[in-house]
Amino acid sequence: MVEYYVLERQDIERKVQVADGCTLLDFIETYVAGVEQTMESLWDIIGRDVPKKDCCRAYLNMISQVSVLLPDVYRAYQDAMAKEEKLWMEVIGRGVENGELQNDVKPTILAKIMMSLFYGRAFQDSLIDGMNPKLLKEEMLAVYERVKG
Questions:
Q1: How many C-beta neighbours within 10 Å does residue 59 have?
Q2: Are the CB atoms for 147 and 141 separated by under 8 Å?
Q3: Which residues pair with residue 148 across a beta bridge?
Q4: Under a CB-based contact definition with an 8 Å cutoff, are residues 116 and 69 in contact?
Q5: What does the pLDDT look like over 3-18, one tens digit per residue?
Q6: How far is CA 105 from the centre of its chain?
Q7: How confident is the model over 39-69, as pLDDT tens digits?
Q8: Is the pLDDT of residue 2 over 70?
Q9: All residues at 6 or more sequence positions from 43 whose CB lies less than 8 Å from its CB, including other chains
Q10: How far is CA 97 from the centre of its chain?
């Protein structure tokens, strides 16, 4: 059960369907929509009678406990995060190559920034009102505006 919620629900290929010519702007839109869909389905599973912020907090707590209690699952989770980072880097790299992004953008750094926005927003929002995909999108688009070509 933990593997399903920690690995399968967070799998980037489940969350985001990326076309070959996908721009970074398209990817951000698709990524945030995937986050929103994942959060809604998590809320359905836990129960709509539970406040959304409590669902987010419980989910993040479960992920942090996996690192201690289930090291094999945690290694698989780390692999999944590496896969997600690689996808971000590929999309960003294409954006640099095709002129969508400034030519001095470093895909490895921008990928880490975008992932940090997601995980930071998920953590911070879990302490307040639950994951806010609209704010995540605004933040990612603000970064995009600073690096677009």
A1: 23
A2: no
A3: 101
A4: no
A5: 666 666 666 776 676 7
A6: 20
A7: 887 777 777 788 777 777 887 888 888 888 8
A8: no
A9: 50, 52, 55
A10: 24
- Ramachandran quadrant class, 18 (left: phi over 0; alpha: psi -120 to 50; beta: rest): beta
Using CA atoms, how far apart are residues 130 and 140, in angstroms rounded to an integer?
18
The DSSP code sequence of 129-142 is TS--HHHHHHHHHH
Q: Which of 80, 83, 101 is nearest to 23 (CA)?
A: 101
Residue whose token pair is 């406990």 = 65
Q: 102-118 burial string, b = 16+ CB within 10 Å, else e?
A: eeebebeebbebbeebb
* Helices 107-126, 52-69: inter-axial angle, 10-degree rounding: 120
Q: Is 99 left (phi over 0), alpha (psi -120 to 50) or beta?
A: left
Give the three-state DSSP class for 101: strand
Predicted TM-score (pTM) of this structure: 0.86
